[in-house]
Every structure is written in C-alpha cells, then in structure tokens.
Specification:
The complex is a heterodimer of chains A (about 170) and B (about 140). Helices cover about 25% and strands about 35% of the residues of chain A. With about 170 residues, chain A is of the alpha+beta class. The chains are: A alpha+beta (about 170), B alpha+beta (about 140).
Chain lengths: ~170, ~140
C-alpha cells in the first residue's frame, strides 16, 4: 500500500466518542487565560443581562473542554479504540519530522454554556500529502460534532488540521 | 467588554473592531498551560525550549486564537459567534506586542438571522501575522 492509499484509507474513520460536562470553574479560569475579563464568564447575572440563560464559554473553549469535563463514569462504552490519525502520524514521526497545528475551526450551532452535557463523535474528514519547498507535508483533518446530550440538537462542531512536515 | 450591545444596523462593511493589544509574557504562557491542560514544555520550560534550538519558550497557537477570539466577542458580544476559523502562520514570543485586526467584510440575512462576516488576524509590532482567519457572528436587529 502506498502512503497515499494509507492516507485515503483513514478518511471517514471514527476517532472518538465522548461526553463532556461544561463546568463553571474551568470556563471562568479559561476566560482569564485568554485575557478575557468580560463579566459574563464569571457572573451569571451579567450573563443574564447579556441575554444568555447561563454563563457562556469563550469561543475557543471547546478545544479544551475534554480536558476538564470528560468524566470517567459517563463515557460511552463503545468509544473507538486507538486513533486512525495516530496510525498515520505515528509511523511518520518514527522517521522524523515535526507536527504542526495548521488550522482550527469552530462552528457554533448555539452557544455552549455552563451546565451543558455534550456528546461528541469524531472522525477523520480528510487526509492527503503534498510536496512543498522540498518537504513532504502530510495533512490530516479531524472533526468532532458535539450535540446536546438531552435534546440531541447540534451545539458545536470543531475541525482541526494537523500537519506532519518532514 | 460586550456591555454595549452591537446591533446589525450599526455595523458597516469595511468597519474595524476596536484593536486589542497585549504584550505576551511568560506568565501568560503558564496561565494558558494551566487553563488548557496543554503542558508541552516548549511553552513553559525555558531549559527544554533552548536545548531544542528555540530562542526561548513560545506561545501556544491556541492562545493566539483565544486572544483574537476575545477581541471578536468584545466586538460582537459573547455567545454571538457562529463560526470562527484560523490558520496558524508564525510562533509568538514573550515580549512581543500582539495586536488584533478585525474587519467587517459582509453583512447578510440568512433564514431571518442577521449575520456579519469578519476577517481577523493577530500580528506583532512589525506587522508579522501570527494567525489569520475569518468569523461569522449573528447580531441582534433593531427592526
């Protein structure tokens, strides 16, 4: 199998299934860390005054929400084992090169808020390689679609473009 | 800080959001590492960073996107961003003054929602772009 076949073989493969709880402390702390001192992130009355029914999260918080909210006892039992991205990037890294975070995207279907429990399913949406300035750049794009655990409505979709350069 | 509500009718194509400037410190990197859970030592351990050939520790790409996101929500209001995408182009270094640039590129209505499209970027004092991308926000209408 050529490298190109190995890449196209992972497109569509699942990468994750998880549940996260959005808690207030990590949200407030994260807002401060991105220099955001808007009171809506630390005062529910300020959030209410801004027309929100709960404390919202800063736009990039979904990137880190699994770090704090992935409670062990609520994880789906059928989560995929292993990660197809690792199957491709692992052998490449063994030969050298560096990993870069090329692009990041968030699509919000409604605001993510404190108190939410979200269910996310991830998959590889694209994988390809190209030559650039004498280097081989391998791109893997993954996406996680997060839904409201209770209502099933879509909440936020995150897309990450990882590049291996060697 | 999002306290004065921005209405769709008040925004013009070509208008720019207030610039947010911030001089990056090592404390910012430590705080972001703690708040994100990203403890890659290249972002907080000077000894490891310099041993691997870097001039110093450097900023998390997601800190840059987060700082630019703060300027974005300061402008359009928290909870109003419907899409936000960036490409990471350069590393950020402690001591650099990072400034945001957010420009309204289009206004449109879609399914009764009032949307604005924005171009956004973060650059240092020499104009070197660190992250560049675009966003869409839904704004309240006076009508």
């Amino acid at each position: 199998m050529s490298d190109g076949d190995a890449l196209s073989a992972i497109i569509g493969k699942p990468t994750s299934k998880s549940r996260v709880v959005i808690e207030r402390g990590p949200v407030t702390n994260f807002a401060i860390a991105v220099c955001d001192h808007n009171p809506v992130y630390r005062d529910s009355k300020a959030a209410e005054a801004a027309g929100l029914d709960a404390i919202p999260v800063p736009p990039t918080f979904p990137f880190v929400m699994e770090t704090w909210g992935r409670f062990a006892e609520i994880q789906p039992e059928d989560a995929p084992r292993g990660n197809p991205m690792g199957e491709v990037i692992g052998p490449l890294m063994a030969k050298g090169g560096i990993i870069l975070h090329g692009e990041q995207e968030f699509e919000y279907h409604r605001p993510v808020k404190v108190g939410d429990v979200l269910y996310g399913e991830g998959k590889v949406v694209d994988a390809y390689a190209k030559e650039s300035k004498g280097k081989t750049m391998t791109f893997v794009v993954t996406e996680v679609a997060w839904r409201d655990e209770t209502t099933g409505e879509p909440v936020v979709t995150t897309r990450m473009n990882i590049i291996h350069r060697a | 800080m999002g306290e004065e509500k921005l209405y769709f009718e008040d925004v013009k194509e070509g208008a720019e959001a207030p610039v947010k400037s911030h001089t990056l410190t090592r404390t910012d990197l430590v705080r972001y590492a703690g708040a994100s859970g990203d403890y890659n030592p290249m972002h907080h351990d000077e000894v490891i960073a310099t041993a691997s050939g870097q001039p110093s520790v450097f900023g998390h790409g997601m800190f840059s996107m987060g700082l630019l996101g703060t300027a974005l929500t300061d402008f359009v209001g928290a909870g109003n961003v419907v899409r936000y995408r960036v490409r990471f182009s350069r590393q950020t270094w402690p001591g650099e003054e990072l400034s945001t640039k957010i420009v309204v590129t289009a206004k449109r209505e879609d399914g009764g929602r009032h949307l604005v499209d924005l171009e956004c970027s973060l650059a240092n004092g020499d104009g070197e772009v660190k992250v560049v991308g675009e966003a869409t926000a839904v704004l309240p209408s006076r009508s």
